[in-house]
Amino acid sequence: MLKVTNLKKVYPKSDRVAVDDISFELRPGEIFGFLGQNGAGKSTTIKCLTGILPFDGGSIEVCGYDIQKEPIKAKMNMGYVPDNHSVYEKLTGREYVNYVADLYRVSKQDRTERLERYLDLFKLRFAIDKQIKAYSHGMKQKICIIAALIHEPRLWVLDEPMMGLDPQSTAEIIAYMREHCAKGNTVFFSSHNLDLVKRLCHRVAIINDGHLIDCFDLAGNEENKANLEERFFKITGTYEKRLFEDYVAQEQAEMRPDMPVESVEEPVKQSDTYTDANDYYGYAAPEQFDTYAGNNENYDYAAPEQPYDQNYDGGTEDEQ
Q1: Helix 167-182 to helix 137-149 angle, to the nearest 10 degrees?
Q2: What is the enclosing helix (H) or strand (E) of 278?
């Protein structure tokens, strides 16, 4: 479906190699996660394999078509959702989707049927005939996704697709990613959300400083799923032991010294007035009395006498 071989990219006027000799291959029917820190080379790799950026070495094949030698055929088999909502905002949603459908030579019947389905799937029917500039962040993301899927690509590429989306929109996109793969297609997406990657991806690759460091299975491998965070942080050089300690124990031992670290073997006997449990709570509670009367010395102030408890004589009628 997608084959990247010894890919190398160096930006003009830069000595740094943005992507350095990376290779990987995607299989039909899988969701493939692409992980890395900001600046690791994820977006550069994606822009190279979608034909947006030229590259300096290696090769990229999409469904058997070389992206440099046969770019049109390669792109006809690919749908791309960027991370920056690159759309024509003066167009309505419907006009934009039709424009993209024309580029991919989708018949009017097919585009109409698919658009109707996607509008219900992504709950965007109410806004499809409004200008895109009036759309929210999530709505722009959805119209980009619909446009990327209007020609039913075999390879669906997404660059951080869940960024800034509400839970409902995220769930809708996840559901269709799975449905797309169930048809024998492939999804390739970058993300910073490791929990999402664990739940969604069949395989994952980690890139760091332009180098592809690791590529491994997640589907059917509970050990790899459980260790994904630790593995990612170690590969990217950001591992800290404190990130993987028991936060509850840490909070009790370090942040809340007034709370017991472990359960007390002999529960503290508490009286009705808590006077026997002062040590447990970390402070001394003042003794409590049934009434305030005659016990003002136990407080830092004297409770004033209340005028409504006495017969009040004098004053004007309004005061009374």
Answers
A1: 10
A2: helix 278-281
